[in-house]
TrEMBL record:
Keyword Nuclease: yes
NCBIfam families documented for this protein: PRK00015.1-3
Lineage: Bacteria, Pseudomonadati, Bacteroidota, Flavobacteriia, Flavobacteriales
Compartments, as annotated in UniProt: Cytoplasm
Protein name: Ribonuclease HII
Length: 199
């Protein structure tokens, strides 16, 4: 059973990101403030849910949320400041878009940086413990998947519609065969040693 609230503050937001381990596409974060009495039977960590269930939950979460926001940070930013900093920045930017401003932040994972003196707690596996983080994980994942489906049309040979930019064998084979695109993260190890690109 996921818990509704972590702190004693009334306006608490949960935040999470998706796409940290991908070779292509943005890192996407969501932040959300849910009503105190919010409950949603199927809601869990987005990785535990099927694509169909996530799609079903997304409009319910958006309708019932007091406020929510989503941020994509593209590969150029990831390559510039590294994936950990980009993940935190995407979460922070999402939080800054919320209205009202949260009085407390709960973050999935174990890393975050202070934001405008708002108190926060990082919670490992928070997306399977707290409703707001689970809801943020569903939004981050669904918005990022939609983005990957869209750029798939531009570069269908990488099959991002299916792999969403993750390092699958198929994705790596396509990188080996076709090279990289503007959506690839050049600071990532795109190919294992034995699959070096011949420049």
């Amino acid at each position: 059973m996921l818990l509704n609230h972590y702190s004693d503050f009334l306006i608490e937001c949960g935040t999470d990101e998706a796409g940290k381990g991908c070779l292509a596409g943005p890192v996407t974060a969501a932040a959300i403030i849910l009503p105190k009495n919010f409950s949603l039977h199927l809601l869990n960590d987005s990785k535990q849910l099927s694509e169909k269930t996530r799609a079903l939950l997304k409009p319910i979460i958006e309708t019932e949320a007091i406020s929510f926001a989503v941020t994509h940070l593209d590969p150029l930013v990831i390559d510039d400041i590294n994936i950990l900093n980009a993940s935190i920045k995407a979460m922070q930017e999402s939080i800054l878009k919320l209205n009202p401003i949260p009085e407390y932040i709960i973050v999935d994972g174990n890393r975050f940086k202070p934001l405008n003196q708002i108190p926060y707690t990082t919670i490992v596996k928070g997306d399977s413990k707290y409703l707001s983080i689970a809801a943020a994980s569903v939004l981050a994942k669904t918005y990022r998947d939609e983005y990957m489906d869209k750029i798939h049309e531009e570069f269908p040979m990488y099959n991002w519609k299916k792999n969403k930019g993750y390092p699958t064998v198929e994705h790596r084979e396509a990188i080996k065969k076709y090279g990289t695109t503007k959506y690839h993260r050049m600071s990532f190890r795109l190919l294992p040693e034995q699959l070096k690109l011949d420049f």
